[in-house]
Amino acid sequence: MDLECCWSREVIEQADCPNIQAGEEDLLVAKQQRNLEKCVDCSRFHHSLQHLYTDSNPLAPILSGFLEEFRRQKSQIRSLISFLDNKTLEIRFLHELGYVLQSSVDLDEVLSVALTAITAGKGFGMNRAFLLLCDREEGLLKGYLALGPRDLEEAGHVWNEIARNDMDLQDMAQNFRLNKLSSERAKFHVILEKLTISLDDKEHILIKTLEGKRPVKVEQAFHHPNVPPELAALLGVDTFLLMPLISRNRWVGMIIADNFITHRAITDEDMHSLETFGFPVAFAIERASLYDKLQVELSRVTEAGKKLKEQQELIVRMENMALVGRITSSIAHSVRNPLMIIGGFARSILKNSPESDPKRTFIESIVVETRQLEGVLDEILNYSDSLYPTRDFWDVNQLVGTVLRDTGDTLGSLGYVTSFDRGHDLRPAYIDFKQLSYCLRSVLLNDITASGDERTIDITVANGDDSVILVIEDRSRRITQAQLDHYLIPFSETRDLGTGLALVLCKTMLEKQEVPFSAIADEQAGICYTIKLPTRKEEQS
To answer: Using one digit for the tens of pLDDT, what is the confidence trace for 265-276?
Structure first.
């Protein structure tokens, strides 16, 4: 029998077989492999087989049976290989996804990975995904985030961009979290806002799905008896998938996925894959949420601990200050009475002593020293009073004007010229009028030695943020910042007992009222004092 096909020959030439392509030259000398791969689908082989039927060859039906079985098994093998390839890709995908979900405690990162995995072609390939989270405090299932195109044009743009960049799943999720999360949330804001269901609504299909703990494929949603018409109209699709997120029998949330653009059918295989995917996602979301809550509670505890420490330090400081105040007040009152008697007798003797009396010089010295000691006692008693400020709302312009009138003669005798820039529409300040008056006098009359011929003091008052800002610029007293800092230390080693205490008392009084006070010294420009007086009570702040 003259056969058209070369299937019976051991070795053939390239021109003998039309099915052997470039790169398959090894089949020219491999008869069995050539028969299996090429001859089965060759038209020449089928013509030769037809000749066997025509000649009533008994081998013809047997060969036909073998051929049909071979084709069937070959098709099954191809399907199995395709299935295994898909499963291999899915396992790699789930492994990559699981690693990200297990290692991250950032809620936005977890959600970005989850929604990207559902909608990416390298993942589950759905067109859109909506994530709803359970809010147990409010008892609601609320729309939180969504991902997907709004129309075919946007879908084409997004898919072309993904194809051009050739990013893996983790890169796509990272890109979404950094660049698109806010815009996607805003794009689906209206839908997400309306996807709010009470957890007590046991008849709603979403709550029923959560209770069932199994994914549900909804078909013919617009006519489905269990699907609320408003939900179907909101999603705008006839078929969608509901995947509950359950972690240790706790409701975490719900994912709604659909093929809004392509309208590709959702298969049972899609449901099984997403069900497998849902468990790690639910666990990762719950863990990230708990981590966020833990961070919030940790911040609260840290802040509470900080405030407690500050309160303890304040209590200790107040107790120490109160003790010092009682001691100084007791000593001052004990010393003041005999000192006043000594001073009174000395001034009386001095008044009745003639200028020629040789003892007059000693008496004058007693009077001067007595007055100095009385000044020291006044400062000590002022310090004791500073521990207990009495505050109310006062006009700062009036306060400064009063102090300038009281100190004008003294400053004038020392050669000082003062200017006062009154504040306009000034808010009342919440201060202790007596203590602040003392502070202002202390700043104007402090015993820092003046230098230079320019003896000017400029005072400015203006409104600030929740405060009245009082600025005093003394251009005549020019010292370094280090020297000024020493003046603000009570009884520092550079000062004599009783000198420099006025500025220290001023600082202490203001600190007690929690009033910011700063003193900046410049050897060329002088000293600038800034006091920020509050305009509201503490409970109003």
So the answer is: 888 888 887 887
